[in-house]
Amino acid sequence: MAEQERFDAAVLGMGPGGEVAADRLLKAGKKVLVVEPELIGGECGYWACIPSKTLLRPVELAWSTAETPGVTTSSVVWEEARSWRDDMVRHHDDARQVQQYEEQGATVVRGAARIAGPGRIDVQGREFTTDQIVVATGSTARVPDIEGLDQCTVWTNREATNLREVPRRVVIIGAGPVAVETSQYLRGLGAEVTILARGRRLLGREEPRVSELALEHLRARGITVLLNTSAERAHRDGADSMLVLPDGTALAADAVVVATGRQPRTQDLGLESLSVVLDKETGAIEVDEHCAGGPGVWAVGDVTGIMEVTHVAKYQARVAVDTMLGRARSANYDAIPRVVFGHPEVAAVGLTREQAAEKMQVVAAEVDLTAALARPWTHEQEPSGQALGVLADRDRGVLVGAWAVAPHASEWIHQAALAIREQIPVERLLDQVAQFPTYSEGYLAALEDLEL
Ligand SMILES: Cc1cc2nc3c(=O)[nH]c(=O)nc-3n(C[C@H](O)[C@H](O)[C@H](O)COP(=O)(O)OP(=O)(O)OC[C@H]3O[C@@H](n4cnc5c(N)ncnc54)[C@H](O)[C@@H]3O)c2cc1C
Ligand SMILES: NC(=O)c1ccc[n+]([C@@H]2O[C@H](COP(=O)([O-])OP(=O)(O)OC[C@H]3O[C@@H](n4cnc5c(N)ncnc54)[C@H](O)[C@@H]3O)[C@@H](O)[C@H]2O)c1
Question: Entry's InterPro entries (predicted)?
Fold first, then answer.
């Protein structure tokens, strides 16, 4: 008979969702099993958030430096930037993380977990029993079904964030956050970059105005953005990967980056042995407001397909574990910020105007930050394309959405997140006093323009 050990909880997958769940359970004194086939830190730590933000940083600094009088224009030294990225992804070595979890009392098992039945986990022939299972197995890149693409040099987020050499010509398929961020660091590192967007705009989840500004900025950096098109077929021609567009244009690339969304990792997990429901279209685990997928089973992060960002994975883990520990919480996905890092940053929170108009009498205002504020001019010499938009419910007099395209927007969007989530009346927000000269002052300018 196989070895059997009993645990209070088993965490399957140690990306940000799994890590927060495990940390919280260990702090509560629980006996915890953690299972991870690759590296503790997950996709986010090694192939997504961390390396992409690390590669964007030298690029944005080089671009900022060029825009700031009195500083020597710096160029990015690839080998040094790469070395910092390698440090940030821990050279794909998680020995310290394993040790830290073991020191906290966890049992760490390397391997792919399979659920053998309620409360039963199998990892490559080792069996464990547990009262609770937390599924935090994340997602993988979805590769589009394009004839001949398999003959090409195709990069998912994994190769794109861990590149060793910068390709000369890159074509990116997709127009979401991954495409917009990746295009900027590759461009800043010297590649010729073309984005193929199958829709009319970039960042299709955001306000059309956000898409317009993002497009302006990318094009100003020399990134080619082709809208309303995609690769119809592909083939290899010597060293070149060739993508053929519907109008017959053939694009040659040294690497084709697929940035076409994510696939929740629910296959081969043995979920059929539990009363868990998977979304028919995406395969994501359906969860209730406590992130429970069934009795004794919880799911957090990308595997739920709810909002595939790290801050949501971590939030869901807090909700699930607190509920498991008898302090029931319900997840509220209102007003969770969405950010696209780059130069400048794009940030948004709450509803878009189209979404809001279905539910309420909506009023909107947009402020050109370069016209309204001093800060853009003390930040760079010739600022342009920087704006803040706000949306309010006329009847309730509260904000329901906001977006910004400007430096550091990822940080100061949180003021709108707080106002929306807590439904702070616009009247009260108008009495806030933001420090001078900052981007935060933009809120007053935008709120004063709202015709409530
Ligand atoms: C290029 C890119 C950049 C991004 N940048 C950002 C960003 O800046 N900010 C942000 O908020 N979000 C960002 N995201 C999204 C973010 O990476 C994900 O939302 C986040 O990683 C989800 O965390 P998770 O814990 O659900 O899963 P993951 O990070 O995917 O981790 C899941 C873990 O489960 C493990 N696993 C898989 N199968 C099994 C199994 N059978 N048994 C046990 N373990 C298993 C995997 O090996 C992995 O370690 C980015 C995504 C991409 C692609
Ligand atoms: N800063 C951040 O927080 C950050 C950064 C990167 C990614 N993420 C998250 O990671 C997830 C994945 O991002 P993403 O940009 O890959 O996905 P996405 O789902 O946001 O966008 C996918 C894009 O690919 C296009 N597409 C899909 N299938 C296609 C096909 N067959 N041919 C051509 N185009 C196709 C879509 O039209 C869309 O533009 C998202 O949820 C995103 O929010 C977050």
Answer: FAD/NAD-bd_sf, FAD/NAD-binding_dom, FAD/NAD-linked_Rdtase_dimer_sf, Pyr_nuc-diS_OxRdtase, Pyr_nucl-diS_OxRdtase_dimer
